[in-house]
């Protein structure tokens, strides 16, 4: 039998009365069993598109009994709440100075419980169906919930008279309470300390700040992210007195700097007993964020609470980008009772019941403006009304964990950059080493080739020089003057070619490290005079005046290789004669400077351009063009001279002015220990 009696009403009621009415409707739904659907405003807490209205409601839908209880906060309530909160904060502060002000804070808390709401209770099927349609619009991203609401909207009909009468009696007991309840409440008040709420709030705030300070200090002192998170999770669980506190990390994704967000699941902290195969990644439309992940840390109040370490949920999350965007912006989700909040999400509700979650508080961990993971508090056995200070604490702890993650990411980036640079240095060094070995191998091959060819050339060349020399000693009557000139040309050319070959052989010895010095004491002045005499004929033919300027005594003795020093003098003097025009001069100066013998050759020749000075000691370098060459030679003389000087641990320098001449100066150490 259906009831036609309309018991709907719309009036101002205190918040406590509204809560009692909601409890009555929940009792009716429990008596109806599984056929009844009960939905409260908590079902919309996790919906990102939920309107910003402050409506509270309880909805019961079944074939036999349906009811809708809705409450609107009065317009002035917002300002009043802000004023009350401000009064409470001021009272807490002033209470530390004057405890008498604690009375005001207590009165403020009492006023909150007596807040008046615009309450409407209706049993009209049309009004209930219209409200279901409104909920359907709020849940446009949840196809499963919308299907559930659509199914129940088909069963709405006038209430059963028996059930309606039973609820009416229960309703009267709430709206017309006995007078002794008020007397009991009034008798309690004088015996309650007026300072107790203020003191508790102040103590909680101090404890919160102390915990945050400890977490911040640990993050600054430690660079080990797994240790930081493990300690923080355990401390926060104990402080909030929750059954379980977990850190849920989403799968790897690209960070704002184009690198993957740091992952700490590779630290070997997972419980292999719960390891599950990785499922195919589900990506939110128009977003690169993956909703999949797993629990990487947990702290439990006791071993009787099931572990969810490495648990992952892959099928029940609603792929709505707005929800995750809200988390990314710092949204904190508080669910007092999952049985009420997820009544329209049977899959997620079943999952939460499986892992023993009755109430939960979630704060996002945002790293570089991306959602890295979630910090989640679980109450496993009973509902829990989360306080604002608990929400703020969990949110601030999550922010500190984000700082620790950022710190870990910086260290990881630095280590990666260091490893990359080290690898580049190793690769570059190896490349240079390989190039050096290749160059050395090529140089050795060239030197060996030159040495082999030089040896092969010396044998026939020696025969040519010897035979031409023998023929030149024959009596002049046996050959004509023209024949003698030809023989002389052959002999001189052979001598010149032999000198070049000897230079090449000697240079290859230096490059192969086979050159040695035969050190002994000798008179440097005598060696210099002998060098000038050996070149006097050449200087005369080229009309170059050569002079000797000795600034050492004839008895001055140099400890060196006399043959090598003679070669140095011969090379420098022959170069001076070669590049000095007719009428010019070349001067050989020798003096002593500390423990060095200084040899200097100055000429008034053609000089060397400044840009060519770095090249004159290079092998096979001729400063004039090969197509316009006026001077013969291979370009080995000065290169060989530099090698001879450095073999004595000395040095050679050059000064030159184009068109005016050059000055070559050699320092040879005169020390038996060298």
UniProtKB/TrEMBL annotation:
SMART domains: GAF, HATPase_c, HisKA
Annotated localization: Cell membrane
Cited PROSITE patterns: HIS_KIN, PHYTOCHROME_2
Stretches assigned to the Histidine kinase domain: 452-672
Main location: membrane
Catalytic activity: ATP + protein L-histidine = ADP + protein N-phospho-L-histidine
Gene Ontology molecular function, alphabetical: ATP binding; phosphorelay sensor kinase activity
Keywords per UniProt: ATP-binding, Cell membrane, Kinase, Membrane, Nucleotide-binding, Phosphoprotein, Transferase, Two-component regulatory system
E.C. designation(s): 2.7.13.3
Segments forming domain Phytochrome chromophore attachment site: 224-400
The UniProt record lists the keyword Membrane: yes
GO CC annotations on file: plasma membrane
Family: In the N-terminal section; belongs to the phytochrome family.
Protein's UniProt name: histidine kinase
Biological source species: Chroococcidiopsis thermalis (strain PCC 7203)
